[in-house]
């Protein structure tokens, strides 16, 4: 996929209007994973608006976003930064070798305590 | 009162208590919750990408079955509730998703979001009424209890419409109804770390212990939740504060928590 197609796809998958962002930073201020992010939630919004596809796809923050939607709830402009992050994460996970998790990473305690919900959602989030 | 009921995969396995006590309590309150037959896991996470149709299909099947059976679907697991309610909203309000999903599924009758999706707590509040629960209580839970909402019940509020996302009260009202004293603490709607506990444990642990120490610091003697993943994350975070499913406490209050 060339850059323009990739950008178009990211915009469609995000399903949120990044042009409405007024760069107040409230989304990042509320993010529980802020410290673990190389690109912050508000920067995802900005970078998508600028069409910086390569930079977005190289982000490590996509694996630390918790999809808690605190950013979405706080945004005064109705933008959904979490959707942009999810669009990037899904795009990367769909690429060959792009998976964020493998079956080998599941710890041995799996049968005892780990709820199905955790396995199912982690695999849905990190893998395609 | 008869409702369709979707337990979800975790309530059939690691979170059996959440399910068993919900059934016993419903019975004690004179409500029939009928499990939908032949359901599949909802997938645990909603996909925000409108091009992803396949992950929505199992939810649509559940919703369509509930539509045939009275039109009210009750869920308990916060994650199931979030996924199914949001997919229902897509079927109602997103013409493209609706068209593609319906074309693929070829149901007897097209599904257009007709089913009402209720969380068990909403059923208690809106269909039974907390006042009636108060009357049915045999063993008041005389404890200081912290409600843990987490994320999925509340957000995104535009679709979930569960409660005020920044200052919710439904679980506190529930606690009062079963004779407890609710403890309001700042981290009750903060994320517990979610599925990061598989990939980035230190992150999840930090988030979960912040929740519990916040509850403890405000005087809670226990914390209640509706989410098996919250339960798991909070329990393994290393803080010594009991974490209990809300349905177990309800059954205890109603006097139906024994093995009768
Ligand atoms: S959804 Fe992700 S980016 Fe948004 S606040 Fe939560 S962790 Fe941060
Ligand atoms: S909160 Fe909304 S408007 Fe503010 S920076 Fe984030 S996305 Fe932009
Ligand atoms: S959300 Fe979780 S518990 Fe509920 S059915 Fe899906 S995976 Fe199972
Ligand atoms: S695991 Fe975290 S994200 Fe999921 S419901 Fe619980 S609090 Fe919310």
What is the CA-CA span between the terminal residues of chain B? Answer: 23 Å
CATH architecture annotation name of the largest domain in chain B: Up-down Bundle
CATH superfamily of chain A: Alpha-helical ferredoxin
Can you identify the CATH class of chain A?
A: Mainly Alpha
Structural class based on helices, strands and sheet pairing of chain A? mainly alpha
Question: What's the quaternary structure here?
Answer: heterodimer
Largest interface summary: A-B, 39 and 44 residues
Largest sheet of chain B: 4 strands, parallel
**CATH architecture classification of chain A:** Orthogonal Bundle
Strand content of chain B: 5-15%
Number of alpha- plus pi-helical segments of chain A: 7
CATH T-level topology of the largest domain in chain B: Glutathione S-transferase Yfyf (Class Pi), Chain A, domain 2
Radius of gyration of chain A over alpha carbons?
Answer: 15 Å
**Structurally, how many domains make up the residues of chain B?**
2
Give the helix proportion of chain A (percent range). 40-55%
Q: Biggest β-sheet of chain A, characterized?
A: none
What percent strand of chain A?
under 5%
List each distinct ligand once: iron/sulfur cluster
- Rg of chain B computed from alpha carbons, rounded to a whole number of angstroms: 18 Å
Enumerate how many helices of chain B there are, as a single number: 12
């Amino acid at each position: 996929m060339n850059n323009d197609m990739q950008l178009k796809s990211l915009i469609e998958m995000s399903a949120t209007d990044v042009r409405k962002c007024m760069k107040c930073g409230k989304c990042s201020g509320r993010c529980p994973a802020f410290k673990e992010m190389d690109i912050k939630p508000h920067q995802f919004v900005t970078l998508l608006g600028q069409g910086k596809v390569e930079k977005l796809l190289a982000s490590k923050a996509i694996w630390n976003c918790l999809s808690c939607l605190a950013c979405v709830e706080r945004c005064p402009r109705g933008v959904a930064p979490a959707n942009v992050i999810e669009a990037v994460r899904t795009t990367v996970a769909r690429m060959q070798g792009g998976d964020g998790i493998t079956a080998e990473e599941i710890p041995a305690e799996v049968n005892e305590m780990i709820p199905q919900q955790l396995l199912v959602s982690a695999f849905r989030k990190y893998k395609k | 009162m008869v409702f369709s009921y979707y337990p979800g995969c975790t309530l059939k396995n690691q979170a059996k208590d959440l399910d068993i006590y919900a059934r016993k309590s419903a019975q004690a309150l004179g409500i029939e919750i009928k499990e939908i037959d032949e359901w599949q896991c909802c997938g645990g996470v909603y996909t925000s990408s409108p091009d992803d149709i396949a992950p929505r299909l199992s939810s649509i099947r559940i919703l369509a079955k509930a539509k045939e059976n009275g039109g009210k679907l009750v869920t308990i697991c916060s994650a199931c509730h979030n996924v199914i309610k949001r997919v229902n909203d897509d079927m109602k309000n997103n013409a493209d998703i609706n068209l593609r999903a319906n074309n693929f599924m070829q149901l007897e009758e097209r599904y257009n979001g007709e089913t009402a999706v209720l969380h068990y707590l909403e059923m208690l509040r809106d269909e039974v009424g907390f006042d009636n629960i108060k009357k049915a209580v045999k063993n008041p839970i005389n404890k200081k209890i912290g409600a843990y909402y987490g994320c999925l019940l509340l957000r995104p509020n535009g679709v979930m419409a569960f409660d005020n996302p920044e200052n919710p009260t439904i679980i506190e009202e529930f606690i009062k109804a079963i004779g407890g004293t609710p403890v309001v603490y700042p981290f009750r709607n903060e994320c517990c770390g979610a599925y990061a506990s598989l990939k980035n444990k230190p992150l999840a642990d930090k988030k979960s212990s912040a929740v519990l120490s916040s509850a403890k610091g405000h005087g809670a003697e226990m914390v209640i939740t509706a989410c098996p993943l919250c339960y798991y994350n909070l329990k393994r975070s290393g803080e010594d504060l009991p974490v209990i499913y809300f349905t177990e406490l309800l059954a205890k209050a109603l006097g139906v928590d024994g093995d009768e």
